[in-house]
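re: ur question from yesterday

yeah so i grabbed the chain u mentioned. its 225 aa long if i counted rite. heres the sequnce exactly as i have it in my notes:
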Amino acid sequence: MVHDGSLVTQASILEEGMNKSWQTALQRTIAALGIGMAAWGVQAQSTDPLVVGEVVARDRCAVCHGPCGQSVAPNFPRLAGQNAQYLARQLHAFASGERKSTAMSEKVKGLSPSDIEAVAEYYARQKPGHTPSGDELLLSVGRFVYERGNRHTGLPPCATCHGPGAAGTTELPRLAGQHPQYIMRQVQAFKQGSGARDNAIMRVMSHRLSDLELEAVAAYLGNLK
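ran it thru and got these structure tokens back, copy pasting raw so excuse formatting
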């Protein structure tokens, strides 16, 4: 049987091209798996909690909160400079279901207690950000309400619980430098009872804050460094 040489040549070229494409695809897959396994290896084998925390932050948290805890969108809170023990408590609460969030429950799934402690410590050591405001009058109102409250409406100073610098504690979050819109949304959630958690004190305080006072306090806190 006689074969057409041109057909044989074309078939060989086609076969060679397919082999190269397959090899390239395989190499890319192996490389991708290598990167993923390398990241997992750092997390699994490192004894430095900050290294583990950085890997967890990059792989699980960075999309929303930023790799260094400086979220760009006010939908997500800034975590940089947050109290490590407070942050770890919240992550454990998401993991146990005490705090309800489909997104956060998925993110903490599979994390060990030491992973959670590590990422909390990592974010706590990052430099806090803030949201500068040039509205000096609004900031003055916010500072007054935060530090002195409003005796006419029975509103105690926010600083009573959150401290003069709003730096956070093991029980309360750092509010200094937080996105003002995020703060306002959380207070409104306490007021409406629509949040994933409740707090009797914040529920009362939220009802005593006027819209102007809330906006002013949020601006003042966001402006703090």
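noticed a couple things. The domain at 136-223 is CATH 1.10.760.10 (Cytochrome Bc1 Complex; Chain D, domain 2). also The chain has two domains: 49-125, 136-223.
anyway ttyl
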